[in-house]
Specification:
The complex is a heterodimer of chains A (about 230) and B (about 210). Chain A has about 230 residues and is an all-alpha fold. Chain A has one domain. Chain A is built from nine helices and no strands. The longest helix of chain A is centred in the middle third of the chain and has 30 residues. Chain A is globular, with a radius of gyration of 18 Å. In chain A, about 45% of the residues are buried. With about 210 residues, chain B is of the alpha/beta class. A five-stranded parallel beta sheet of chain B has the order 6-7-8-3-9. In chain B, strands 2-1-4-5 form a four-stranded antiparallel beta sheet. In chain B, strand 1 and strand 2 form a beta hairpin. Chain B is globular, with a radius of gyration of 17 Å. Classes of the chains: A mainly alpha (about 230), B alpha/beta (about 210). At the A-B interface, helix 1, helix 5 and helix 6 of A face helix 2 and helix 3 of B.
Chain lengths: ~230, ~210
């Protein structure tokens, strides 16, 4: 692809992301439901577990697991909307006639990734305050959130395209999403626990990066099969 | 505009049971191609196959520009499609919808270019109104503007006059008369008034 072609593709990806953001800004359906879920879960977890229910050395892995459970289910509430909304509103046909599946997938992944970062920006400090969870290395935590969040977003968005025309979309999404995301979630929990202790765990991070690469390649190669008839 | 040919070879399609159509072959470089047949004969499906929105069961569709087959974005921009199930973003205005689709197609979306297309179908006065508040006829006009969005040499219009008033029909007739001179216009309809002296007729018998 030439530089001109790459710049044009990026502009098209951005146009699709900006359109989703403008729709979300007007309706606030995904953001409201996701943040409401995150706030409810955070409150329940803080009451159930509390800041002092466990010894300090036991809290790291527990808090990391709670964080990723929260992030997984929060994203599972909002991210499947990416393609489902296009199918339900009938706009998928118009979108298919003007843009290839790979660019549509990239645009929607970008929007979902920004949505994930917004969820994380609320959830991580919220969990820290409610459970008195001190993160020794915020930089390492940010690295883990960005890379693991990217993998979570790519897989979720791709699956959204795959299930958009199926019956029982939401149930199907969670059932298919969970086994695919288990390796990423386990590595993310380990890397998050290490970041909370002040270190950047290299092995879980490598697994996350490898997962991101494989998920990106798989989604790119299968985008047309998932989105086009 | 480059001379463009749409060529279909031995197309067949069936959903369940006997085929809607089989071994359908045709080619057009300009003029009006009337696609007719009773309800359920496969007119909409055929146009969607030509627009690459539905895969044929067998056969192929090629778009040729200067005897060269085009694909990818070139093909997308060479073929404009509008059909009854083409929908727009209800939260957005007519202008916002067209701006988005032009940008998603990788083309500039200057205000003048978009206004020009809305004027072509008589929607300039409601350009800033949400599509959700549009009547059936206004949505139909917007579908025609969408088909013309990338200035495609090939037009595929499925029931384009459904819901249109007399002025809307006149605008549609103007567009078809103008575009059939520069490229093929495939028009599927149940209304014989839509086919003014067609250059070619594809009659689908149905199953």
């Amino acid at each position: 692809m030439t530089d001109n072609g790459s710049a044009r593709s990026l502009a098209r990806i951005w146009a699709i992301c900006a359109k989703d953001a403008a729709q979300e800004a007007r309706r606030r359906v995904a953001l409201a439901s996701v943040l409401f879920f995150a706030a409810t879960a955070l409150t329940l977890v803080s009451f159930a577990v509390g800041p002092s229910g466990f010894a300090r050395q036991e809290r790291g892995p527990l808090h990391a697991a709670l964080l990723w459970i929260l992030l997984f289910f929060s994203t599972a509430t909002g991210l499947p909307r990416a393609f489902v909304r296009e199918e339900e509103s009938g706009t998928a046909l118009a979108l298919r006639t003007v843009a290839p599946a790979t660019l549509v997938l990239a645009g929607k992944t970008l929007f979902n990734f920004l949505l994930f970062l917004a969820i994380a920006a609320v959830t991580v400090p919220g969990l820290g305050i409610l459970l008195s969870w001190e993160v020794a290395s915020p930089g390492a935590m940010a690295v883990v959130l960005v890379f693991a969040g990217y993998g979570l977003t790519v897989v979720s968005t791709f699956l959204s395209a795959l299930i958009a025309r199926a019956a029982q979309k939401n149930v199907l999404f969670v059932l298919v999403c969970f086994p695919l995301l288990v390796p990423l979630l386990l590595s993310s929990i380990a890397a998050t626990a290490a970041a909370a202790e002040g270190s950047l765990a290299s092995m879980p991070l490598r697994v996350i990066l490898a997962y991101d690469g494989a998920a990106t390649c798989g989604a790119y190669l299968l985008a047309a099969a998932a989105w086009e008839e | 505009m480059l001379a463009t040919t749409l060529e279909a070879r031995e197309l067949s399609k069936s959903f369940s049971g006997p085929p809607l159509f089989s071994n359908l072959s045709f080619s057009a470089s300009s003029g009006l191609v009337a696609v007719s047949g009773r309800n359920g004969s496969g007119k909409t499906t055929l146009l969607k196959i030509l627009a690459r929105l539905v895969r044929p069961g067998a056969g192929s569709v090629r778009v040729l520009q200067a005897s060269r087959e085009v694909g990818g974005d070139e093909r997308r921009r060479a073929v404009g499609w509008a059909g009854p199930d083409l929908a727009f973003y209800d939260d957005f205005t007519a202008q916002e919808n067209l701006v988005f689709f032009r940008r998603a197609a990788g083309l500039g979306a200057g205000a003048a270019a978009i206004r020009g297309r809305l004027e072509r179908v008589g929607l300039e006065a409601v350009a800033d109104r949400s599509v959700g508040a549009f009547s059936t006829g206004m949505k139909q006009r917007l579908r025609l503007a969408f088909a013309l969005l990338c200035d495609p040499p090939v037009l595929l219009l499925d029931e384009p006059s459904a819901g249109l008033d007399d002025r809307g029909r006149a605008r549609l007739a103007e567009v078809v008369a103008e575009r059939r001179r520069v490229g093929p216009v495939f028009l599927a309809s149940n209304d014989a008034r839509d086919f003014e002296s067609p250059d070619q007729v594809i009659e689908l018998a149905g199953r």
